[in-house]
UniProtKB/TrEMBL annotation:
<comment type="similarity">
    <text>Belongs to the ABC transporter superfamily.</text>
</comment>
<dbReference type="InterPro" id="IPR003593">
    <property type="entry name" value="AAA+_ATPase"/>
</dbReference>
<dbReference type="GO" id="GO:0015833">
    <property type="term" value="P:peptide transport"/>
</dbReference>
<dbReference type="Pfam" id="PF00005">
    <property type="entry name" value="ABC_tran"/>
</dbReference>
<feature type="domain" description="ABC transporter">
    <location>
        <begin position="1"/>
        <end position="248"/>
    </location>
</feature>
<dbReference type="GO" id="GO:0005886">
    <property type="term" value="C:plasma membrane"/>
</dbReference>
<dbReference type="GO" id="GO:0055085">
    <property type="term" value="P:transmembrane transport"/>
</dbReference>
<keyword id="KW-0067">ATP-binding</keyword>
<dbReference type="GO" id="GO:0016887">
    <property type="term" value="F:ATP hydrolysis activity"/>
</dbReference>
<dbReference type="InterPro" id="IPR050319">
    <property type="entry name" value="ABC_transp_ATP-bind"/>
</dbReference>
<dbReference type="Pfam" id="PF08352">
    <property type="entry name" value="oligo_HPY"/>
</dbReference>
<dbReference type="InterPro" id="IPR013563">
    <property type="entry name" value="Oligopep_ABC_C"/>
</dbReference>
<dbReference type="GO" id="GO:0005524">
    <property type="term" value="F:ATP binding"/>
</dbReference>
<dbReference type="InterPro" id="IPR017871">
    <property type="entry name" value="ABC_transporter-like_CS"/>
</dbReference>
<keyword id="KW-0813">Transport</keyword>
<dbReference type="InterPro" id="IPR003439">
    <property type="entry name" value="ABC_transporter-like_ATP-bd"/>
</dbReference>
<dbReference type="InterPro" id="IPR027417">
    <property type="entry name" value="P-loop_NTPase"/>
</dbReference>
Length: 324
């Protein structure tokens, strides 16, 4: 709720920070049990910071993080232990997130022991179950990470997250480093597990093509803020923020008749240090007007569950003109 994460950078002679990075700047969303919410946006928009804040790997500047009705942003390290079990993460890089000197058996047993979930025979049974869940052969429990392919390593990373019996898994670019065909397999696996185990999944990704296939709801982030949030069909079928339209126009569509018009954005994401006034997207938005430079748009409800932060009611000019 109203999550803010600012980083001070540099120091003046008086000891005050020279400037402030607005990594996350007032953002609210929820993820339900058994649901996948995707957080999308270009790199540097703050989506990984949101994930790390929820994992309590970084302290937040303002706002609240609530798990099952209970705040977890202000609790002590000691009471954090059971919360850590309930929120697990799968990182982007399966090559560096697994200890190269640990056998798969020990990688998976670590969280089970750490959270006192099983010992002895039960632990052994659980290890087998976890390997089945991620469709890896049980007899490879004794092998080291380098003996596996990239996709298999990411399956080990998923099994490690599942070992803690979490309620929420945060996937931060979890399939981005994988080859296209492997990517699809791992995404399908995540979807099946999410459904079978009733997990909540926060899927952080810059890749809309993947997101289109695996999510119920989507939140689009730009410069530390959510600019649009809604169900998949709303975001893909009726996007209401020019930034969402631009992101989606880069997606290939199978049917040339319905091909989305390509909208090329000029410039890069501006620096999150001293973000621009008014709408943060105005420097790159083809529809920006005078108001946009001065007044920051709030999220407005378009339809039940569908919100967008743009001053304009009608953004069809984005897709009407040949090139914007
Ligand atoms: Fe573009 Fe203005 Fe809408 Fe921002 S508020 S997205 S600048 S039209
Ligand atoms: Mg990131």
């Amino acid at each position: 709720n109203d999550l803010v994460k600012h980083y001070p950078v540099g120091r003046t002679l008086s000891g005050r920070p020279k400037s402030v990075v607005h990594a996350v700047d007032g953002l609210s969303f929820h993820v339900d049990r058994g649901e996948t919410l995707s957080l999308v946006g270009e790199s540097g928009c703050g989506k990984s910071t949101v994930g790390r804040a929820i994992l309590r790997l970084v302290d937040i500047t303002m706002g609240q993080i609530v798990l099952d009705g209970r705040r977890i942003d202000d609790i002590s390290q000691a009471s954090l232990h059971p919360v850590r079990r309930r929120i697990q993460v799968v990182f982007q890089d399966p090559f560096s997130s697994l200890n190269p000197r640990m056998r798969v058996r020990d990688i998976l047993a670590e969280p089970i022991r750490n959270f006192r979930l099983a010992t002895g025979q039960d632990l052994e049974r659980r290890l087998g179950e976890l390997m089945d869940m991620v469709q890896l052969p049980r007899d490879s429990l004794g092998r080291l990470p380098h003996e596996f392919s990239g996709g298999q390593r990411q399956r080990i990373g998923i099994a490690r997250a599942l070992a803690a019996k979490p309620d929420l898994i945060i996937c931060d670019e979890a399939v981005s480093a994988l080859d296209v065909s492997v990517k699809a397999q791992v995404v399908n696996l995540l979807q099946d597990l999410q459904r079978d185990l009733g997990l909540a999944l926060l899927f952080i990704s810059h890749d809309l093509a993947i997101v289109e296939h695996m999510t119920q709801r989507i939140a689009v982030m730009y410069l530390g803020k959510i600019v649009e949030i809604g169900e998949r069909r709303q975001i893909f079928g009726d996007p209401r923020h020019p930034y969402t339209v631009a992101l989606m126009s880069a997606l290939p569509t199978p049917d040339p008749e319905t091909r989305r018009r390509r909208v090329t954005l000029v410039g890069d994401v501006p620096s999150p240090i001293d973000p621009p006034p008014g709408c943060r997207f105005h420097g790159r938005c083809p529809l920006a007007g005078e108001t946009c430079r001065r007044i920051e748009p709030d999220l407005r409800q378009i339809a039940p569950g569908h919100w967008a932060a743009c001053h304009l009611d009608d953004i069809s000019a984005m897709t009407r003109d040949a090139t914007v």
